[in-house]
Amino acid sequence: MIAQGMRISSRTVLVETELFQGANGRLQPKGGSTRKEAALLLHRMYNQQP
Q1: Is residue 2 part of a domain?
Q2: 34 lies in which domain range?
Q3: Residues 1-50: pLDDT tens digits?
Q4: What is the model's pTM?
Q5: Interacting residues of 25 by C-beta distance below 8 A, sequence separation 6+
Q6: How far apart are CA 26 and CA 43, in angstroms?
Q7: Which of 27, 34, 42, 47 could form a disulfide with 22 if both were Cys (CB 3.0 to 4.6 A apart)?
Q8: What is the dihedral of CA 37, 43, 47, 50, to 10 degrees?
Q9: pLDDT at 15
Q10: Terminal-residue alpha carbon distance, the chain
Q11: What are the CB-based long-range contacts (under 8 Å, 24+) for 27-34?
């Protein structure tokens, strides 16, 4: 869990909510993404429980 007063990056939130999972457990910010990966992200966002 994140300590109070600590800044949270959007990347941290996306990983902790499992919207982003990366390749082999690592994010590759300079790597490209495929249509399949983009569709999977949208699917996860749409179906995420509030």
Answers
A1: no
A2: 10-46
A3: 555 656 778 888 888 888 888 888 788 878 888 899 889 989 998 998 66
A4: 0.62
A5: none
A6: 21
A7: 27
A8: 60
A9: 83
A10: 18
A11: none
